[in-house]
Amino acid sequence: MMNLGQLKDEGPVRSAPGFCFEYYDQIGSTNTHGLHKAREGHPGNLWVRSDIQLSGRGRRGRAWTSETGNLFASVLLRVGVQNEKIVQLPFVAALALGEAIERATGAHNLVQLKWPNDVLIDGQKVSGILLESESGPNGELCLVCGFGVNVSHHPDLGDYAVTDLRSMGYMCEPQQVFDALAQSFARWLETWKAASGFEEIRSAWLRRAVGRGKPIRVRLSNEEFSGVFMDIDQMGRLIVKMDHGGERLVTAGDVFFS
Fold it and tell me: What is this enzyme's class at the first EC digit (predicted)?
């Protein structure tokens, strides 16, 4: 593949039995490589890590600064059926990462979550999560969930307050965050697979949710509106109480708190 650097290490993930990993010095995009491995027939449960991404990207095609010192990792999953539960996976990812950051830093009640999958410390964004998928040859869904964690430095994102763990006084390394993330993600993924698993995930996510019951501004691709953040439903959609009465469900968008 283009932009694929030297393979530094590979093997089983010690903190997450049943998962394996490939670790590169540089790569175009860990998500792109994960999907490439899926097309080659990889069975999944594969983590792809890199010290540097040359073509990192965030939600809605935004560029993602990917210099050495931060964590860049994606996990490839093969999901047997293309069902509507897939939209719940961003909450699995955010919960796992929030838990992992607290374990790596040794700080309890440090992280808050912002819909749909932002991870915040003191109201400042500390990571990015991007899920991408395509259909496999047998009707299954090949899905990659990419994580970019600001461990040592952070970009300027304009509308968003951003930080990194080191700036907040936490001297952990990307490897520590990865080990904790792989472990937490495997555990929450198993919860999600259970018949009523999302109810536990939803409750855990809401306990960490920032801004519940407070005024919110929602920016969609073609409009903006204001209301109050009330809840999320069983599909992870944001439930907003409108200023003029009634409720509105939001599937995708950017949210801002006053």
Answer: ligase
Beta bridge partners of 113: 119, 209
Which CATH class, in words, describes the domain spanning 7-208? alpha beta
Amino acid letter, residue 12: P
Dig out the tokens for 63 from the structure: 């560029």
20/37 Cα distance (integer angstroms) = 13
Q: What is the pLDDT of residues 93-137, one digit of tens each?
A: 999 999 999 999 999 999 999 998 899 999 999 999 999 999 887
Phi first, then psi: what are they for 88, rounded to 5°?
A: -85, -15
pLDDT in tens, 26-57: 999 999 999 999 999 999 999 999 999 987 65
Mean local confidence (pLDDT), 163-192:
96
**How is the chain split into domains, by residue range?**
7-208, 215-257
Q: What kind and span of H or E run contains 37?
A: helix 30-39
C-alpha torsion 8→129→134→139, nearest 10: 100
Task: Please report the beta strands in 182-223, taking only residues with DSSP state E, as ranges in sequence order.
Answer: 215-219
Note the pTM of the prediction, 2 decimals.
0.91
CATH number of 215-257: 2.30.30.100
